[in-house]
Automatic annotation (TrEMBL):
<keyword id="KW-1133">Transmembrane helix</keyword>
<keyword id="KW-0812">Transmembrane</keyword>
<dbReference type="InterPro" id="IPR003784">
    <property type="entry name" value="BioY"/>
</dbReference>
<feature type="transmembrane region" description="Helical">
    <location>
        <begin position="92"/>
        <end position="116"/>
    </location>
</feature>
<protein>
    <recommendedName>
        <fullName>Biotin transporter</fullName>
    </recommendedName>
</protein>
<feature type="transmembrane region" description="Helical">
    <location>
        <begin position="128"/>
        <end position="152"/>
    </location>
</feature>
<keyword id="KW-0813">Transport</keyword>
<feature type="transmembrane region" description="Helical">
    <location>
        <begin position="164"/>
        <end position="186"/>
    </location>
</feature>
<dbReference type="Pfam" id="PF02632">
    <property type="entry name" value="BioY"/>
</dbReference>
<feature type="transmembrane region" description="Helical">
    <location>
        <begin position="49"/>
        <end position="72"/>
    </location>
</feature>
<keyword id="KW-1003">Cell membrane</keyword>
<comment type="similarity">
    <text>Belongs to the BioY family.</text>
</comment>
<feature type="transmembrane region" description="Helical">
    <location>
        <begin position="15"/>
        <end position="37"/>
    </location>
</feature>
<keyword id="KW-0472">Membrane</keyword>
Length: 192
């Protein structure tokens, strides 16, 4: 089935296609998490790039659905997250230091998708701004969760924010350059 045929399909067919796209997005997230570079305090991955890209390319609902599916797979113990062993550790991992950032992924995909739906992906500058906003959203629950776990007397910002700003800005620029054209094409054809 061509992309055009998929985008002009009936409602049940669109639901089936959207489900497959969400599954593909969760697989892409897993691959982006597993291809990591050792870094302190957490491995450096392309996961934020993919999270933001899913929102920009698929919109708020479908982008969020892909991220939610990824999170459910992790909660069930599948080894989808960066640094998880062959047999994932599920909710225990999600309640650790990374937990707030994982929640931030869901919020960021929704925000990037919402901004794309409102036209913030029509120029490279506005797409970059949307990607930066989505990237910043990841930090809010991430840093708050680190503070709750370890205490605010610890160097929380040095652990969970400042080492990642430059890399995430680069990933946001890359996402803004790559993914908006996909969303524009899907929107022109009537969406999924």
């Amino acid at each position: 089935m061509t992309l055009y045929a998929a985008l002009t399909a009936s409602r049940p067919e669109k639901l089936a296609i959207a489900s497959l796209v969400a599954i593909a997005g969760s697989i892409l997230l897993t691959l982006s998490a597993k291809l990591s570079i050792p870094f302190y305090p957490v491995p450096l991955t392309m996961t934020t790039f993919v999270v933001i890209g899913l929102g920009l390319a698929l919109g708020s609902r479908l982008g969020s659905a892909a991220v939610a599916l990824y999170l459910v797979q992790g909660a069930l113990g599948l080894p989808v997250f960066a640094g998880t062993p062959e047999k994932g550790i599920g909710l225990a991992y999600m309640m650790g230091p990374t937990g707030g950032y994982l929640l931030g992924y869901l919020l960021a995909a929704f925000a990037a998708g919402t901004l794309a739906e409102r036209g913030m992906d029509r120029s490279p500058l506005s797409a970059f701004l949307a990607a930066i906003i989505a990237s910043a959203i990841i930090y809010v629950p991430g840093v708050l969760w680190l503070g709750a776990l370890f205490g605010w007397d610890q160097p929380i910002l040095a652990w969970g924010l400042t080492p990642f700003i430059l890399g995430d800005a680069t990933k946001a620029a890359l996402a803004a350059a790559v993914f908006p054209a996909t969303w524009a094409m899907i929107a022109r054809k009537g969406g999924l």
